[in-house]
């Protein structure tokens, strides 16, 4: 068994992945159901769900300083050096948003689309116990659905937030917005059909579910549900499996101790980020408060995306596999 890198553990199915799948589908499904069934849908509660999603989602990046150790072992740089570089990059990105909001926003949207899209395909490979594959079409379908489509399909709702992020920006004009909605929807359908035909039925269904979420649910509520209820738990599942300290517990089908270990490791960075987020939120009115909070999220996303790229690169070389695959046993029906 490898001591470092994405581990092949020797017991049970991939419990973290299964739990994350159930939880994320439940959150997004419930969010969609509220909009469709409850009179008035999310209404004015969209900003509250956005805040909840940001708060719940922050901890999924709080272990970034440990990921190099998970995948590189003793060859990883010192944690203090990584933390210092991480913090410096966060500050630089935040200042870039202040100085050049337009270009910074565009760069952030492109990075977010790539990060979310590759995150979905990497998790699918992790869940299947296979090395991570590069799948540009599927990643682009997920990324544009989650990032570009809300801006195009809900122009009126996001316009105040976009203007607060980048003064003078009114978002997409009506014509390009309609074209973007059509293009992204077609891309999602093509990618979904392709996934279905090659046997990735769950991935195709999840793409359809997220497409429905973005088109039906108000954008702030939709992003809060996705970020905190879908993206974060799926990334945390990969981290739980990548941490060598969790190998024995996961092999025995125990999840409580790895979760407690993760909570201890993530507590201080999470509290620091949430404290700064609270200060930024409480010192301004809506939508400036949300814009400033999203600037912080953007600043945290840049180094986080780089760290996840390291994890994905390691995952392309090997895989985390359930016991029945690691031992060469046939899959149980």
From TrEMBL:
UniProt record, GO biological process: carotene catabolic process
Top EC category: oxidoreductase
InterPro entries (alphabetical): Blh_diox
Membrane topology type: Multi-pass membrane protein
EC annotation from Swiss-Prot or TrEMBL: 1.13.11.63
Main location: membrane
Record-level GO cellular component terms: plasma membrane
Keyword Flavoprotein on entry: no
Cofactor names: Fe(2+)
UniProt keyword terms in alphabetical order: Cell membrane, Dioxygenase, Iron, Membrane, Metal-binding, Monooxygenase, Oxidoreductase, Transmembrane, Transmembrane helix
GO molecular function: beta-carotene 15,15'-dioxygenase activity; carotenoid dioxygenase activity; iron ion binding; monooxygenase activity
Catalytic function, reaction form: all-trans-beta-carotene + O2 = 2 all-trans-retinal
Protein localization: Cell membrane
Ranges that cross the membrane: 48-67, 79-97, 207-228, 266-284, 290-311
Pfam families for this protein: BCD
Residue numbers binding Fe cation: 60, 115, 231, 235
HAMAP family associated with the record: Beta_carotene_diox
Chain's role: Catalyzes the cleavage of beta-carotene at its central double bond (15,15') to yield two molecules of all-trans-retinal.
Family: Belongs to the Brp/Blh beta-carotene diooxygenase family.
Stated name of the protein: Probable beta-carotene 15,15'-dioxygenase
